[in-house]
Amino acid sequence: MVECDLAKVETGVRFSSLAPFVKIVGTTDVEIKLNSKELSFFVFKKGCDDMLNIIKEKLDLSPNLKKKIDWAKNYTSTSIMLKKGHLIRLEPSNLAYVDPHKVIINDYTFLFFNGVDTFYINNLNNKHNLSELEKYFKLAKCS
């Protein structure tokens, strides 16, 4: 049996088609090939190849959040496209990422997380309180 020494691990992310290539050099070498179709995540070490499984679980909107989004949508008479978020886990590691719920209105993407009284617009830098949601739905509708 071969044991992996995590301090000397190289990590690579590979995608199926031609894509930009990025190489980050630090304490470990991380090789990333970007592609939107298929994602494979590998951990490499000389003499030891372990594959991390990517598990994507769909998240439901919390009832409280769904009620607030529906209220703002109905109050402003705005048509929205709702995409539910995901919990993305890399097994057998302890790495996980929460992909937020998304509401799309024209060129604006509103990002929501369950159990939080804030939302984001287009990226995680533009943070706003849920109490202001109808105001931003109106602005997005008018643009």
Give the helices and strands, then pairings:
Blueprint: E1 10-15, E2 21-25, E3 29-33, E4 39-45, E5 48-58, H1 63-76, E6 81-83, E7 86-91, E8 95-99, E9 101-105, E10 108-112, E11 118-121, E12 127-129, H2 133-142
Report on the structure:
The radius of gyration is 20 Å and the shape is elongated. Residues 15-48 have low confidence and may be disordered. It contains two helices and twelve strands, in the order E-E-E-E-E-H-E-E-E-E-E-E-E-H. Helices cover 17% and strands 45% of the residues. It is of the alpha+beta class and 143 residues long. The strands form two sheets. It has a seven-stranded mixed sheet with strand order 2-3-1-4-5-7-8, with no helix packed on it. Strands 6-9-10-11-12 form a five-stranded antiparallel sheet, covered by helices on one side.
CA gyration radius, whole angstroms = 20 Å
End-to-end separation in angstroms reads: 61 Å
Number of strands: 12
The overall pLDDT average reads 75
> How helix-rich are the residues, as a percent range?
10-25%
* Count of alpha/pi helices: 2
In spatial order, strands of the major sheet run 2-3-1-4-5-7-8
Order of helices and strands: EEEEEHEEEEEEEH
Largest sheet: 7 strands, mixed
